[in-house]
Amino acid sequence: MSMSEQSVQWYELGPVSSIPLRGSRRVVINDQTIGLFRTATDKVFAIDDQCPHKKGPLSEGIVHDNCVTCPLHNWVISLEDGKAQGADEGCVNTYPVKIEGEQLRIGVALCNKQELATVGD
Length: 121
Ligand code: FES
Fold this sequence. Notes:
This protein is mostly beta strands. Helices cover 3% and strands 42% of the residues. The strands form 3 sheets. It has a 5-stranded antiparallel β-sheet, with no helix packed on it. Strands 1-10-9 form a 3-stranded antiparallel β-sheet. The radius of gyration is 14 Å and the shape is globular. FE2/S2 (inorganic) cluster binds at residues 51, 53-54, 56, 70, 72-75.
């Protein structure tokens, strides 16, 4: 097992239907705000809810294709790799997503001091 596999903790986040189609939901895990996004083709992605430009709330943006457009200044961020598209440069963390049945889980890497994990909305 690699280091990265050892340090990932999986969090149950309820049914996929808790995220609106072509919409998003926000969760806080270990003081980190993460946006959950559901595309028109029913794919689910999890990325940091903070635009790489000026920290706009990506979970309030418009979901299209496999991207989200930031509500503040319209940067387009890929939900697949977290990278800003086009001429813009920047990147946010992405998190692995597992869907088992209807249940959604995401994996978040832990530092040692974050072993006491908490989940909130
Ligand atoms: S903060 Fe997202 S585009 Fe400026």
